[in-house]
Amino acid sequence: MIEIKNVTQSYVDGKTVIDNMSLTIDDGVVYGFIGPNGAGKTTTIEMITGVLKIDKGDILIDGHSIITNPIEAKKKFGFVPDSPDAYEKLTGLEYLNFIGDVYKVDKKTRFEKVEKLAKEFGIYDHLKDRIQSYSHGMRQKLIIISVLLYNPKNWILDEPMTGLDPQSSYVLKNLMREHSKNGNTVFFSTHVLEVAEKICDKIAIIDDGKIVFTGTIDEIHQKLKSNDNLEESFLKIIRGDTEDESIN
Amino acid sequence: MKVLTKVIFKSDVRRDRNTSNKVLAFLAFLIVFGFLALVMTIASIYITNRLVEIKQPYAFISLMLLFNFAILFVKSIFEVLNVLFFSKDLKVLLRMPIKSRDIIHAKLLKMIVSEYEMELIMLAIPMLIYGIKTGVDKVFYLYIPIILAIIPVIPICIVSVIISIIMRFTNMIKNKSKVLYITLFIAIVLVDLVFRYSGEGTYSIAEFQNSVLFENGLAMEIADKFKLIWPIMEGMLNYNSLVGVGSILKYIGYSVIAYIAALIIISPIYLKGAIGTVINSNRKTITDTKLKLEDFNELSTNYAYRKKEFKIISRSPIFFIQCVILPVVMALSIFAIAIGMTIFSNYYNVDIVSDVREKASLGWGTGIFISICQVFYMMNFSSIIAVSKEERWARLTKYMPIKLYSQMKLKIHLGKFINFITALPVIYWYYICSGSIVNSVLLLITAVMLNSFGEKVKILIDMRNPKIDWDNEYTMMKQNTNVMYELFYTIIVLVVIIGLGFLVSNLRFYFPVLISLLLLINLWMNDYLRIKDYKIFEKLY
Q1: Contact present, B251 and B150 (Cβ < 8 Å)
Q2: What is d(CA B78, CA B326) in angstroms, rounded to the nearest whole number?
């Protein structure tokens, strides 16, 4: 469970990027986080993961504050960033072993999981190559495997489908659903509204640093009193073409 | 072509995010520049005086030119490899409809101009001092900027041609690091051959000893052995006659020919070498891709972290040279000097050891030994790039469930270890000179504590302004203004340690005072890093 409590974040020049945001991501749901470019999606995710300092408010991950108890909080999530970050000079296998050592995954589990996942994502034959030689998609897959290796309760993914081929994208979507079915949390940002529509149990729409809508896809339709697809509903909300004041 | 040159030049400019950083970097640059200029001035005065005494003043010019050429050749090897072949801008440039000749032209110009900063200290200052000390005519000073402008051209062009030819063939090797190491090795050998055998090719100590018997004979002997410096040498010595003007014009002509020849030779082969480095990247030709249970070893987090740090440094030739090879080679040189001194003293009854022992028994003398350790520590860049070396992947440090304070300690571990190795020969040397085991042990403790504090300072400098957006390892090191802060820190340390030695000259008091001081600042630093770890990593996002 991830709880964002009255979080505010500003730039050095005083401009507010995230404005008093509150959001609760319950266990057992796939939660989509959507919004236009520059709305504050990545900033929010970077605050949840402890990369960015929070000016006001707090974020709890399974009850552990990322401010006061960052190490326990970090143990509770796995993060796939928008730019797949891994040490270029290591091989894929060395990187996975390193992650295994940091998160204390035993040897047998590592072997079994890596073998299975690397085959599913199609990078098995490249694991002994240096990450330097990987394409964006391959790096993305490696990072996803590294997170699945220690299988944290909360998955946080920033634009996870970017750079993935259709098959890997399909595998990841299935894994996300499966993870949430097991009572865990999946929180991900995306630009691809079709993906959000297909796999999300709930979505949050962020615009200009504020959450403008939270709920299920059906709830959007109910609020907008239309049967538009998510893309059209999203545009209506962002443009302010809605009579429901609770949305804007 | 002009636009391309401008863009490439701009990309080489050191960038800092805010004004205060720019001001601080400028101040640090001024202080470091001033310090180095002062060192060069003192050294130039000393050497000129000695050479004037033995009636060999011209030898100063030939020695300076020789020294500069040697540095230029070695530096050019790294510069050419990284600017021409391992620069990230190649990925963009090679896609564009730009002729390879234009890329080479822009990059050669950039490399030549970037040498001027160093030449200003290494060549212009000694020449000025020489002029003042020997009372030359004003015309002499007009030659200095001309020589400064043309001197890097020939070394850079020769090295560019050699490396381009090697790269044309080594790019078939798919591992980028291997390509770098192999090319580096072959280039060093070839450049050494070019440099050595551009003159008569043979050296004999007797010839040099004989040359000292004639006025300015040494200068002529050096110029004769190294033909590359001859025209400049001739120009500088005959500065107030047409012979001098002619020689300089001749050298300018040689430089222009070298530049054009480099363009003509490199242009047709450049793209294949450059494309090879971009495409091959770092692909290994691994046949056995099957994973086995033995491929997965469980290690403690600390050990795994340290292993990861070492792998990142050892797999980058530039980082490995700057962080491991260079300091260790320097330390071994000191070790050789120490052994040499002992042998020399024994065989020739020249009591150098007693002379040094007398000085080492005083605070400032011992301070000099500690300062030598500090200079070696300064040459080890592993902690000053502890975070930045990981490029934008450095952000991982913040996701990991490991305390940032612990990560800092793990990141500086390699630096501390290498520093410790480099300090040992100095301590051994001190032991030979001082003959005191107790003082040598105290020096070891001091060196270890200084090492520990210094490496923490280095990671703080790195985190104050992390340089995680870089083109390649070489430009990352070169454009890294943080290195200047490290030099600045070293200057302060040297002043404090030697200064304290003058204030407290008795070693019975000098060591306790210094060790207590180091203990206090180490404890304070540990507390600071532990309490402020999140704040220290704030700029990394």
Answers
A1: yes
A2: 14
Question: Which position has the higher pLDDT, A22 or B67?
Answer: A22
Domain boundaries, chain A: 1-76+154-248, 86-151
Residues in chain A within 8 Å Cβ distance of B306: none
| Max mean pLDDT range (A81-90, A135-144, B7-16, B162-171) | A135-144
DSSP assignment of A128-172 equals: TSBGGG--HHHHHHHHHHHHHHH--SEEEEESTTTT--HHHHHHH
Q: Hey, which residues does B506 pair with through a beta bridge?
A: B362
Residue with tokens 């430009």: B475
Cβ-defined contact of A108 to B308 (cutoff 8 Å): no
| A62-76, A114-128, B71-85: segment of lowest average pLDDT | B71-85
Q: Identify whether the C-beta of residue B65 lies closer than 8 Å to the C-beta of residue B232.
A: yes
Backbone angles phi, psi at A190, to 5 degrees: -155, 155
CB A39 within 8 A of CB A189: no
What pLDDT score does A220 carry? Answer: 79
- Distance set, CA B437 to CA B423, B430, B443 (Å): 16, 10, 10
> Which tens digit of pLDDT belongs to each residue from B250-291?
999 999 999 999 999 998 888 777 766 665 555 555 567 788
Strand partners, A3: A24, A60
Whole-angstrom Cα distance, residue A15 to residue A209? 11
A97: chain B residues, CB-CB within 8 Å: 295-297, 299, 304
Q: Which helix (H) or strand (E) holds A204?
A: strand A202-207
Q: How far apart are CA A86 and CA A101, in angstroms?
A: 15
Determine the Cα–Cα distance for residues B425 and B417; give it in Å rounded to an integer. 14
Can you read off the two tokens belonging to residue B246?
Answer: 């002619």
- Which H helix or E strand runs over A215? strand A210-215
**How distant is the Cα of B465 from the closest Cα of chain A, in angstroms?**
16
CA distance linking residue B281 with residue B259, whole number of Å: 29
Q: What is the DSSP letter of B538?
A: T
Q: Does A136 touch chain B (CB under 8 A)?
A: no
> Hey, what are B479's tokens?
């454009």
Residue A229 has φ and ψ, to the nearest 5°, of: -75, 175
Note whether A112 contacts B: Cβ–Cβ < 8 A: no
Alpha carbons B480 and B381: distance in angstroms, whole number: 11
Q: Select the more confidently predicted residue: A196 or B516.
A: B516
Domain A1-76+154-248: which topology? Rossmann fold (3.40.50)
What is the interface pTM, i.e. ipTM, of the complex?
A: 0.87
Per the DSSP assignment, residues forming a β-bridge with A32 are A188, A203
- Residues A24 and A58 sit within 8 Å (Cβ to Cβ): no
Closest to A132 (Cβ–Cβ): which among B176, B307, B308?
A: B176
How far, CA to CA in Å, does B346 sit from each of B164, B343, B349, B352? 50, 5, 6, 10
